[in-house]
Automatic annotation (TrEMBL):
Residues 105-143 are annotated as: Disordered. SUPFAM superfamilies: Metallo-dependent phosphatases. Coiled coil: none annotated. InterPro entries: Metallo-depent_PP-like. Residues 110-124, 131-143 have a biased composition (Polar residues). This is Metallophosphoesterase.
Length: 143
């Protein structure tokens, strides 16, 4: 919903088409309501991540049917938001094919950017950006 990755923030390769054109206006409205603690939007071909602005965590959810083939479970109580992201159970061949399909595109095509060119290092950087283990869980304290 809101620009999250560097490419979404700079609109490289039209990444801004994946976010609200009026994200700032929406955030202005939401932050006026202290009961709003989080938003969930997706899917994106990124493992779960969030940006925290004011008192709101803006989560971007992973795709379940294409790379990274993940879903997220949230636990929310008065003190915190906890999330854990899991790989969809499927044949390993399906997972590998999904990954290879994602890597097969050139630098000017989603989900690549100039920072993740179609090279061995670019592939690793793209995988790190999209689906690193660090994106699989987290905990946010609530005010
Ligand atoms: Fe998609």
């Amino acid at each position: 919903m809101v620009p999250n990755t560097p490419a979404e923030q700079t609109s490289e390769n039209d990444f801004d088409k994946f976010v609200l054109y009026n994200a700032d206006a929406v955030k202005t409205i939401l932050k006026q309501h202290p009961q709003v603690i989080m938003t969930l939007s997706g899917h994106r071909h990124l493992s779960t991540r969030y940006l925290e602005e004011d008192h709101i965590a803006y989560f971007t959810m992973a795709s379940t049917v294409t790379w990274p083939l993940r879903y997220t479970v949230f636990e929310v109580d008065k003190k915190q938001i906890t999330y854990n992201t899991y790989d969809i159970r499927c044949d390993p061949k399906v997972r590998e094919e999904a990954k290879q399909n994602m890597l097969a595109v050139d630098t000017k095509t989603f989900p690549r950017t100039q920072a993740t060119p179609n090279t061995p290092q670019g592939n690793q950087d793209l995988l790190d950006l999209i689906s690193s283990e660090s994106t699989k869980s987290g905990k946010l304290s609530l005010p």
